[in-house]
Amino acid sequence: MTNDIRPPAVILAGGLSRRMGTDKADLKLGGVPLALLIADRLRPQVSDVLLNAPEGHPLANTLSNIPDRVPDRPGPLAGVLTGMKAIAELPIQHSHVLTTPCDTPFLPHDLVLRLTDDLQSGTIVMAACAGRSHPVTALWPVSLADDLETWLFDPNHRRVFDFIARHPSKTIEFEPLHGPFGSVDPFFNVNTPEDLTLAEAILERGEA
Q1: Which domains does the chain have, with CATH numbers?
Q2: What pLDDT, in 10s, does the model give residues 110-135?
Q3: In a 10 Å sphere around its CB, with 0-12 CB exposed, 13-18 middle and 19+ buried, how is residue 85 labelled?
Q4: Distance CA 111, CA 71 (A)
Q5: How far apart (Å, rounded) are the C-alpha atoms in residues 136 and 78?
Q6: pTM of this prediction?
Q7: Are 103 and 24 spatial neighbours (Cβ–Cβ below 8 Å)?
């Protein structure tokens, strides 16, 4: 599969944001909600950008929202499944869907180009940096939707890596950013007020 076929993307914003204490998708960085910063970063790379957030989310008027199809907010795999199902219903067929958390504002500008290079049907492709895999920033085969749906019926099946282990997968390594205090993983999550302060410093320096 060539990398000129752009997949759609789904920004996962169904989490509870316990550590931040507020909805991270709508959290402002440089005056702009995190999810919208991510959408702007992704639009040149993908065919469409969708939001996976609860019904009535404040950004649903800006981004097309696809709420979880699994009740009780069971974690990121529910958002992955929702993305797979939504993409499978589109008139244009796509083999994969890209997902990313709503709190990773510095995604590489060549993320999709590199993840889709030599893309194989049925293979999950994860981003990585400094040897650490980021399974939620990944390309997911749409063909895995039925298996994932069955998997999620079991309440013990919530870990992303456990599901990935059931299928062919690979990781693509990306270089770290030059942050104000040293190297920064471009997939780092803004989970705490301290993380937000770091993200603001990176944004001000224009390092990403």
Answers
A1: 9-205 (3.90.550.10)
A2: 999 999 998 998 999 999 999 999 99
A3: middle
A4: 31
A5: 11
A6: 0.91
A7: yes
